[in-house]
Specification:
By secondary structure, this protein is mainly alpha-helical. It is built from 14 helices and no strands.
Length: 302
């Protein structure tokens, strides 16, 4: 029941006119709380229309009739918006109010609008907004579940930091697993396998990464992200299998060590005047002094 239904016709028209002047929302104009279902809004509209129709005797004067007409049009517009599923959902979105999915009737066209909006939010990394839009879209599809909507919903949940890590991991995995097991739309199943590969990679289930990437590419061989991720996976696995353990360089042994010692001690050279401690001593060879010309003529210096 509307909170306005107990007012007299003139009081009702004046109150509705006041609400319109103050930019009240459609729920307030009808005198019902936000979230009131379609059936109740239709009943409220009938009650108000009977009390404020411009042709009633209470609005015989031109001024009163004009005010009643304006108020009646506002009430009519409010019920038209709030009883139409698509217009109601858009209006609630404008108000920033989350639509009640259970009160929505199936509307695939409106669902696709919400999916398009969700993709725009994903591009801006607004994961919470994207998740909300995709949940609404999922409800609007009704029994005709759209696989692409479910796959993107899982991705939005997986990246939504408003949830705990455990919730994000569990819910996203369940959504993608359901799509994969249903084997519906091939493109959506391939995308679900790709997201599961990323999920396994980040949750430490590395052996399953290649399995999901292979399944993705077996369905869609041109899946660019899966191709790139598979190349990275193969490269990491190849490098880890051929990489040698690092450590200190080994000391030379055997013949290599002995040949090194010979080079170090100078055994292959003669005439070096210094020898490091502990190595074989090399004798110095004295050089003979050369006589000058005068010494050779007068026989000195012999």
């Amino acid at each position: 029941m509307s909170s306005l239904s107990q007012l007299k016709p003139q009081e009702l028209v004046a109150k509705v006119a006041e609400l319109v002047d103050n930019n009240a929302d459609h729920f307030a104009v009808l005198g019902v709380p936000r979230g009131t279902d379609v059936a109740e809004i239709k009943k409220v509209f009938v009650q108000l229309a009977r009390s404020m129709h411009p042709d009633l005797p209470a609005f015989a004067t031109p001024e009163a009739k004009a005010q009643a007409t304006r108020a009646f049009q506002a009430v009519t517009r409010a019920q038209m918006v709030l009883t139409d599923p698509s217009r109601r959902a858009e209006y609630l979105n404008e108000l920033g109010v989350a639509a009640d999915p259970e009160s929505m009737e199936p509307n695939p066209d409106l669902a696709r609008i919400h999916m398009h909006r969700a993709r725009q939010l994903i591009a801006r990394r607004d994961w919470a907004g994207a998740e909300e839009s995709l949940r609404v879209a999922s409800q609007l599809f009704g029994e005709d579940v759209d696989d692409a909507c479910q796959v993107e919903l899982g991705w939005a949940i997986f990246n939504n930091g408003a949830h705990s890590e455990a919730v994000r991991a569990e819910q996203s995995r369940d959504v993608w697993t359901a799509v994969i097991e249903a084997r519906g739309d091939p493109a959506s199943v391939a995308q679900a396998h790709y997201y599961m590969a990323i999920w396994c990679k980040l949750n430490g289930e590395v052996p399953k990464v290649k399995k999901h990437l292979d399944n993705c590419l077996s369905i869609d061989a041109r899946h660019v992200e899966a191709q790139r991720e598979l190349r990275l996976f193969e490269r990491r696995r190849s490098s880890s299998s051929t990489k040698r353990p690092t450590g200190k360089a080994r000391r030379p042994t055997g013949e290599h060590r002995r040949s090194g010692e010979r080079r170090a001690t100078g055994e292959h050279k003669v005439g070096r005047d210094t020898n490091p401690p502990g190595r074989t001593e090399v004798k110095k060879v004295p050089l003979k002094r050369r006589q000058s010309l005068l010494e050779r003529l007068f026989g000195k210096g012999k």
